[in-house]
Structure formats: C-alpha cells, structure tokens
Design a protein that fits this description.
The complex is a heterodimer of chains A (514) and B (296). Chain A is an alpha+beta fold. Chain A is 29% helix and 23% strand. In chain A, strand 4 and strand 5 form a beta hairpin. By secondary structure, chain B is an all-alpha fold. In chain B, helix 5 runs parallel beside helix 12 and helix 9 crosses helix 10. The longest helix of chain B has 37 residues. The chains are: A alpha+beta (514), B mainly alpha (296).
Chain lengths: 514, 296
Amino acid sequence: MPTRRSVLLSSIGVLAAPGLAFAQPRAREVRVGMAQDALTLDPANHRNRETETIIRNMMDGVLTRDADMRIVPEIAESFRQVDAKTWEFRVRQGIRFHSGDALTAADIKFTFDRLVKDGAMGGQTSPRKGLLGPLEDTVMADDRTVRMVLSDPWPILPAMLPFQEVVNRRQVERVGQEGMQTRPDGCGPFKLAEWRRGEAVIMERFAEYYGGSTEIPVAGPAQIDRAIFRVMPENSARIAALLAGEVDIISELPASAMRQVEASRNAQVMKVNGTRTFFVSLNNAKAPFNDVRVRRALNHALDKAAIISRILAGTATPLRGVMSPDAFAFNPDIPEYAHDLARARALLAEAGVAQGTEMVIDTTAALKEIAEAIAALLSRTGLRVRAQIWEGAVLGPMWQNAERRRERDMFLTSWGNGALDPSDIMVPVLRTGGRGNSAGFSNAEVDRLLDAAETEADQGRRADMYKRAQAIVTEQAPWIFLWLPQDIYGVARRVQNWRPQADSRINLHRVRLA
Amino acid sequence: MSATIAEDAPVSPLRLGLDRFAGNRTALVAAALIMLFILAALAAPLIAPHDPADADLFRRLQPPAWQEGGDWAFPLGCDSLGRDMLSRLLYGARVSLMVAALVIGIAAVIGTLAGLAAGYLRGWTDTLISRLVDTLLGFPYLVFAIGLMAMMGPGLHNIVLVLIYKEWVFSCRVVRGETLAAREQDYVEAARALGCGTRHIMLREILPNVLSPVLVVATFRMAYVIIMEASLSFLGLGVQPPTPSWGSMVSDGREHLVDAWWVSTLPGLAILALVLSINLASQGLRDAFDPRLHQA
C-alpha cells in the first residue's frame, strides 16, 4: 500500500510532468529551434529554405554538398557530363525508402518529371521548376542509369541538384498530391514520426538508411534516435530555450545575443558566411535615381562599416558588388565606393538634387532597425531619408511590378544565392525584366554577358563573362551595395560533429551527442 | 422640514461631485500624473534634450545614466540606433495622447448623437443603429483593427480612423440606454406638451442629462485606446518611423530585452503609468458622479 507521502510525491510528479516533458535529460535526441515551421513536407511544393532544411533530413537528393560547399554524389554513385546538354547519373543500389520500397532509377525520373513537367502535380506545376532551368527531360538509360537532358547548355545543373529531394513514385500514387503535403516518403537518415503544425516536426532515426554520400566521412545510419525541429518564432524564446538546454541548435541567433550565448557554459556560437546578398534597390526608372551620379552618391554616403560593426556585431562581409566572395566567378578587382560624405554631397549637387529632398526606404518589419540606420546615415548628406515598414506580402509584389513601384524610391531587400553561382542571382535580379529585378536595372551589355554565360560550357570563359558583368553592375550602381551576412547559430556544446553550412541546411545525419 | 435645512443654499450636483472627487486621494494623484503626462507631451519640443530621430550608432544601446557606461547627457540611455530614450519617450507621449484624445473626442460625439437618435426616435433608426452596434461589438477589437490597418496601410491618420470606426459604439450604447429612460421622464413629457421640436428635446433637454455617463465611459475607453495604439504600433501597423510611439519602442527593444532592458521596459512602464492613472482617475470620476452611489 502506498504511504501518504508517496501518494503525495507521485501526484506532484503527475502535475509537473507536462512541464518537465521538455526539460528532462534525454538520451539521444537533438532538438533544433527554428524561426519558422515547414510550409509543407512535399519537397516539390515550396520555395522556402526552412521547409527545405526540415525536409532534407528526411529525404536525400541525387547530389549533395559537404560543409565546405563541395558538390558530391549522394543517391547517385557517380555523375558525368556527356555533352553540353546531357548529364549522366549512376544510381546507387540497395537504397530503401522509409516505407520499405526500393529506390530505383524510375523514382529519380519520376521526381524530376514531377518537378519540371507542366501540370505534373495533379494539374499544377511545381513552384521549384524554375530552380531546374532548362532541364527538359529525365530518361532512364537502363535501370541503374538516368540521363538529364537540357534544352540549352546549363553548366550549373550540379550546383542546383542538391536542392531537390527524391520522392517515392509509389507513395505519390498511394497518398496522392494532397497526401504528399503531410506524408512524404523519403530515403533520408530520419523518418517522419509526427508533424504538429506550427509546433514541431518530430523525426525518428531510420535504421535501414544506406548511409548517405560516401565522400563525406561517417557514413551509415544516423547517430541519434530522434530529431525534432521546434517552431520558435521569437528570438528571445529560442535563445532562452538554448540556454536552458531545451533545444540544442538554434538558427538565426541575433548578433546582439552572441555574447550571452558565448558566456553560457553549455552553448557556443557558430558562424558561417551566408549566401544572401543584401542591397538597397534604387528605383532606376524614377528621378533622381535614374541619374547614375545620384546612385553613386548614395553608395559613397552610406557608412557600411558603422552598421556592420555596430548593429551586426561584425557578422557580415561588406560587398562592393553583387557576388559573395565565396561564389564561383567572384570578381575581386571591382573598385569600392568608399565612404566619403563630401564626395556624396558633391555628386548630389552636380546631379541637381536639392538639400532636404525626401526619400523613403521601403522594407519589412524584420529589417526595420537596419533600414532606420541606413536612413539616418544617408540623411547626413542633407537629404531627408526615412524608413517605411510594410507587410512583406504587400511589399514584395509591389516592387516586382514596374507600374506599382513607379512612385517608390528605395527598397531594402536581399537575394539568396544558394548555388553560389552568378547564374542563380545575377540573372533573376539584374537581367532586364528578371523576376527579382526590383531596381528595374537594364543594361544591354550585362544582358548579353549573362545570356552568353548561361550557355557557355567552358567554365573559364563563363567566369570571365560574369566578372565583366559584375564590374559593369558596380559601375552603374543600380543598388546601394551592402553586405553578405554571416548565418549565426547557437549550438549546445554536447552537439558534436556538426557545423553550419553556407546553404543554411541543418543536416543532423552525422551529429553525435557528447 | 426644519428651518436651518431649508435655508441652506442648494449645492449643484457638479459641485458635489467635484468635492467628492477632491476627497479621493488615489484619484487625485492619478489625475495629477495624467496632467504631468499631458504637460510633458505638450512641452516635448522644449524639454526634450535631443532630437528624437537623431541616431548615432556609436551611442547604440548606451545604458541609463545611473548604470555603468551611462552618461547624464542621455539620462535614460539610448536605443539600438543611439537615439535618446528620454526624448523619444516625451515625443511618444504626444502620439499616445494625441491619438487617444482625437479618437475619444470624435468617437464620443458620433456615439452620443447616434445613441440619442436611436434612443429617442426609436423605429427603424434604432434598429439600424443598434444592429450596427451589435455587429461591431461582435468583432474582436484587435483583429478588427489589424484587418483594417492591413487594408488601409500603416500611419497615424489611419490608426485614428480605425479606432474611431469601433470606438463610437461604446458611448452610443450608453447614451441610447440613458435616452430610452429619459424619454419617458416628466420633463421630456412636459417639453413635448409645450410643443418643442424633436431636435430641441434631444439636444437641449435630454443631452445635458445623459452627458455625465458619457464622460465616464470616455475616460475609461481612453485607457483602452492608448493600449490599442501601442499594440498596433508594436505590430508595426501604427505610426511610421522615425516618429516614436511607445508601442513601437517596446517592439524595437524586444531584440535587446536581455542585454539592454531599458529600451523596451521604459516605454512599457510609461504605458503602464498612463493607463493606470487614467483608469484610477476615471474610477474616481465614476464614484464621484454616480448619484446611485450616494443616495444615502
């Protein structure tokens, strides 16, 4: 018979249990605090990095990247370029999906047809189609070999393949397009246990995992039993959870909290150069921004170093142009618009821009602090610059439309370049009419170079074209060039064999716990 | 009945109420605090030590003067862009009080007139206004405001408009109820018998008699409107930068809550102090002017 005391204790235990559920020491479980939930678990139906980060732990791709951004085979055993428009991939044998089905070349063909064929997703076309450029067809040469056929030469195909995860053809037939949103079937190191929308994606170790890329050490099934991606939109909540040991890895650690995390005994800060270029789009069609002297003046006027050191705590690399220093074909010889207020004022006067002219920087709430800092620094020229905060859903479409942005001045924004290749950033944001060309920049020579580079199979010649294009862009200054932020993570010290990647993936396959 | 009582000069209800209010120490202190806030807001350009928009990144997150690293030139420290907190708080008081005064003032006029019309005219006017009031009351206030702000775009004018859209409902309801009761009273009956017109009866006879509950409701609601403005600004739907608003200041400081408490806490305290003062003062007003509380 239980004593009164033990009854009391056990009832306290029952009461406390829900609260303790997350704080208990846990054997082999890694929790990641994410600012956003996955939008879907269907790898073909989103254009969102957080979603991809989560899905990528359950599903593998034909190719992948290691932490140094080297492109290596994953589901493929090897790959080669047959000719300018054909790439060949040899499929690894013995790979199983979580459902037990074997992965074959037919699944790879199915996956890529679903991504690039119009209407292949139950009448809809995948939003990821654009990421595969001129990929026209995927054919099975034999049951171990697939060939990807392009309509035009496209040298960055291997750089773009790590973004696509292979799905199980039979699963799509079983659950339908709609079912894929919540019940995907991948062949990755973890399988889905439960998705609590807006709360967490819970994954379990997949014991029959084939081991992933052989070119990255420690192959074999995952070293941990469970991986949980918890949704914690509030920065302060994510930091508190990390310091309390409730989560092990948090992304998007604010620079202001770095010291706090470093000071704690059980967590550390990890940084990696990101792939996202930040800039202020100037409305090139509107006076006075149609005058290159004004655009150059604004570049000279902004004290980037002050913002980087003061607000970003030194966690960003200043850019002279559009490309990341880590990217393919980065041009290191571009001159810099040095911070020079006198020169900025002189250029503005030369262009006939009166002192006290009002200018507005549009941005979203997430970049409010930076926008206000830029506005304050630009105002030192005698212009009156202020920031205006918009809903992202309103602002993006407005600046993508030449008619709707006609009256706007500046737009503080960014563009991700996960492929670390100019083709993935310069074409959409700087080519005439590009889908992200918010500045309305249009330069015939840049267009010609970008088009030629897109189909050039010789990597050396391709690089030269991009370098020339970068030089013209910097000279024409369609933007105020800003910086490339580093991604900052807070990581529990017990997490081992993990480091952040430039492509912002959080890959838990090889993680070990101390 | 005794002669001494009959000879006493009659005391007006207003005088009685004010005397009672003056005897309520809590309400007096609260009223004094409100006056202080109003004075500070009015005199902000004169007493603010700095331009509230003057940013200097080298003063970023400088702590208040009494803390280590502080400087008496910036007594309450600086925010994340190095702007003087004290100056921003003073200018922020202007936004809060101006929005509250505008919204309550306009909404009270609209609500009172609508309530009078509904309560006195009855019929379809009453049906129309009452259904509108019911419909508006059915929406959760913040959701209603967020939806409208998202449609109309952020800004000071829009925030005032959005808040008026719903705020008039509260005085309308009170006035309608009071009017319904008043229209059956002898003095209204008498006015009607004398041949006074509808408008005369509504504005000259009934209105003065239903005004004091409107004053009480308006002060109560004023506290609420201040919180609403702060909430909308916190969500980025309110006043646009660099104009400081207490709500957006709290929001700006969120990122730095752990390493720079003053950026969020000080405007939060300002909201708390003002709203609490208004609530206590309006409680005092109600106690002082509600005849039902003083029948003995």
